Amino acid sequence: AEPGTSAYFGSMGYMTAKDWTGFRNSLSNWGAPSENQIFADTKGDIGWVAAGKVPRRAGWDGLTPVPGDGRYEWDGFLSLDELPSLHNPPSGWFASANQLNLPADYPYAERRVGFEWSNDARMRRIVEVLSADGKQTLDSSMALQTDPTDVTSRRMQALLAPLKTDDVKLAAALDLIRGWDGRTDAASAGAALYEIWTTKHLGRVTIAKAAPPAAAAIMGNGDVAAVMSLLEAPDASLGADPGAAREAILRESLAAAYDEVAGKLGPDPKAWSWGALHRARFDHALTPRVPSAEREAWSSGTAPMPGTALSPLAASWRASDYRVTAGASFRMVLDVGAWDNSRVINTPGQSGEPGTAHFRDLFPLWSKGQYVPLSYSRKAVEAVTETVLKLTPAPAS
Question: Most Cβ neighbours (<10 Å): which of 233, 266, 320, 334?
Answer without folding.
Answer: 334
